[in-house]
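Hello Y.,

Per our agreement to keep a running log of every chain we model this quarter, I'm adding this entry. I've kept the format consistent with earlier entries: sequence first, then predicted structure.
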Amino acid sequence: MAEGNAQSRYVKLTKDQAPLEDITPGELNQPIEVPQLIVHRCLECGQPLPESYQPPADEDWTTGIFGCCEDTDSCWTGLFCPCVLFGNNVETLREEIPWTNACICHAICVEGGMAVAAATALLHGIDPKTAFLICESLFFAWWMCGIYTGLFRQSLQKKYHLKNSPCDPCMVHCCMHWCALCQEHREMKNHLSDNTTMQMTVVNPPPVQEMSSDESKDSASSAPTTHGEHTNMEIQAL
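Predicted structure for the entry above:
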């Protein structure tokens, strides 16, 4: 009875005493930021980085945009077969992409548009009827040249932390496509040469020691004599 008459510790609230607040649906399900769970990751490989990590500053290119003569092989390849040079650059940058795929895409997008414009001008001449087709083909080649090849130049700059030289990657390929291809080839070639020039320590194994037949006979003959000496010493001791 005492428990029944005892006053309850809980107070029942009415509508007048505690007005209900309007709650927007989904307001209580907002994500909460936990500092311990915020992990900085590398943009290239996705591995977690420590809090004290500072990204490296952008560096200059090892060669200039007009330094094509510094590597004659890439210069001639980029001048006469830019699609082949672009394919080699893409394969070096991304091993999962074969150079033939990038070469064919470059040939269709860039060389294809220029070939259509040149064929139209040679076969039909330049008149108001064909001028639109010629301009459209050249504009397609110029636009695809800047977008398609500029994306790979941007990936190269992220990989080696390079600055925009001399301007945005897409604009570089739009205005100086062949020079940009040669510069990218030289840049990757220089970085690969820096990684391979490492001093290797050659350790020669010790010479193999062989026992001749004469030495084996001498060791066999000396064994009984030493055994006999031990027995004589034991007899004298007794």
